[in-house]
Input
Amino acid sequence: MSTPEQNASAHTAGAAEESRPSLSALLLDPSFWADWASVVGLVGLVVVFGISQPVFLSVANLQALLLAAAILVVLSIGQTFVVATAGIDLSLAAAVMLGAIILGLVDAAGYGIFFACVLAVAATSAVGFLNGVLITAGKIPDFVVTLGTLSGVTGLGLILSGGEPIMVGSTFLLRLASGSFGPFGYPVWVAISAVLVAHIALFHTRFGVHLLATGGQTESARSLGIRTDRVKIAAYTISGFCAGTAALLLVARIGSAEPQINTSLLLNSVAAVVLGGVSLFGGRASILGPAIGALMLTALVNGLTLLSVSAFYQPLAVGAIVVLAALIMRYQK
Amino acid sequence: MSAVNHSPSADAILACEGLSKHFGGIRAFTDVAFQARRGEVTAVIGDNGAGKSTLIRCLVGVHVPDGGQIFFDGRQQPFANPDEARKAGIETVHQNLALIDELTVAQNLFLNREIVRRIGPFALLDRKAMKQQARAMLSRLSINMPSVSQRVRRLSGGQRQAISICRAAGSGAKLVVMDEPTAALGVQETANVEALIRRLREQAVSVILVSHNFDQVRRLSDQIWVMRAGRMVATVRSSETTGNELVALVTGAA
Output
């Protein structure tokens, strides 16, 4: 603390952090690889696929890849906020389905596409809010609550839709899906703005610091007057809001609201968060990491498809990469 | 010496009279009178289970006492919760330190009192200002910290204790309450924390110190209060007592 001798080691560690460590030291540090796993993985995949299938690097394919990644990026951001509080949102993909069905039904009932979109996002945010309230006020583990809402929300979607897909022929959504501004399609811009807003919220607002504090040491945060229950409810509500946004992008992309949940979206959102270096124990998060993680998982599927690998191998590859990333994460300091 | 003074004097920053606290049928302490003078280090000692920690928790609003009066800064002021006490100017250094490992030193020092810049309807953190003020806070108490951007996880026990104390003192607190601040520290780190407590007193911050360590209490404090089996049994000036006398008071052998 105040004598230099006893803190010699802490001193040098701190000095190394303030002045940049040398490149070789950086490359030998396992925690560097853990922090940047998603970037390293993405670059690795791009190189491998680019060499083995040059079409992968074509502008058209890269644009398609980004378009396909947009939904997962938005979902991963929602999942990140929840995981940063040391929770998990298993109801994410079910909320996407519910949002899509509400969007389809309200649009089919003739209330107009904007109202339909607003209502869809409001419904998924309400699901998130409910998750948060049950977890904090009900003192039920996050895993159990979101598993319950996963099932409940899926059932609700089936009841509302009668199990039938609903066609959504809106020109607004068609333009959202196919239009582009500059080099990117609109869905990509949606994802980019989500990343920017989330990054600012997490690292440049009081809410963000309180969120990380809540996830890191809930008791300490509470004893300093942070209302940790409110913070957690907010995190789940944000996750629900992201699910609603993803539902809009999904309906726009496929032109109909399907009453089935896409489980790979849920698993990939957790996978992207892990790849992005976010601690599942809470308190440590980034937004860019999970976004790049989502991009990497999409690139993996895209590349395997281009290499004519059977679709059956894709879940296997995703699983292997996630477990590998988790192994590397153990070296994170 | 053993006659406990029951009227809170004008120079008391925090005082209580006739304070009692029970948990169900278990009596934590009964009819306790206590006062901490402004600008002094006031120690509370006693054996395990004597009621020290519960007394302190009642004084800072963690527990609500069953009976008696609490005076802070001259006014009768029982606190309903720790937040109220903090707003009135009492900062507590918790035994668990209440630090967030994954946040930086500066973030911890400003946790829940972050400095923000308003940009239209949005309030963004002013990280530069917080880092600057964090350095100033640390240097005011001569705490040597390599970088305020360092995560607290990497710090030693003494450094963590220092940050927790610095956070309590740096918020402009009138009174800093510390519960066993050196219980988990080595010899050198204990010396550092003791030096820090002395610097707090030099800067006219009042301190209440709960401790087991009689030598430490005699080194650091101006006034010592002794609890035994739920009662305040004695108060002595630190300069006028001996280790043997304190042992006798705590054990009841006197």
Q: What stands out?
A: Chain A has a mean pLDDT of 88. The longest helix of chain A spans residues 228-254.
